[in-house]
């Protein structure tokens, strides 16, 4: 069982920056692909950025050029650096861990952290 705890959300001004962190425990962190998702009320969660266990990254079009995802397998953490923030980036951001165990998909979610971008 993997526990994920996000931190770093809060209020930022348009054009500003925030760093979200996700600390993992209870599993072998390096086995998991790690993602950041976000969700607005009444909407589905959308993938923001992914870093595979091999270190490859992928971003939603809305995040490209502004957000950077990274992982530290020694510290069991994944970080999302967000810059040039826009009001439409406001959402609850969730950390997600995923791996395949044989034919089974295994995934875990954090509790989420609120990001609000407003002047």
Q: How many distinct beta strands?
A: 11
Morphology call = globular
Radius of gyration: 14 Å
Number of helices: 0
Order of H and E elements: EEEEEEEEEEE
Structural class: mainly beta
Query: Which residues sit in consecutive blocks of at least 5 with pLDDT less than 50?
Result: none
Q: DSSP strand (E) fraction?
A: over 45%
Roughly what is the average pLDDT, rounded to an integer?
A: 96
Instruction: State the separation between the terminal residues, measured CA to CA.
Output: 40 Å
Give helix % range. Answer: under 10%
Largest sheet: 7 strands, mixed
Can you give a write-up of this model?
- The chain is built from no helices and 11 strands.
- A hairpin with a 4-residue loop joins strand 7 and strand 8.
- By secondary structure, the chain is mainly beta.
- The chain is globular, with a radius of gyration of 14 Å.
- Strands 2, 4, 5, 6, 9, 10 and 11 form a 7-stranded mixed β-sheet that branches.
A few lines on this structure:
By secondary structure, the protein is mainly beta. The chain has strands spanning 3-7, 10-12, 18-25, 33-39, 46-51, 57-59, 67-72, 77-82, 91-101, 104-109, 113-117. 0% of the residues lie in helices and 55% in strands.
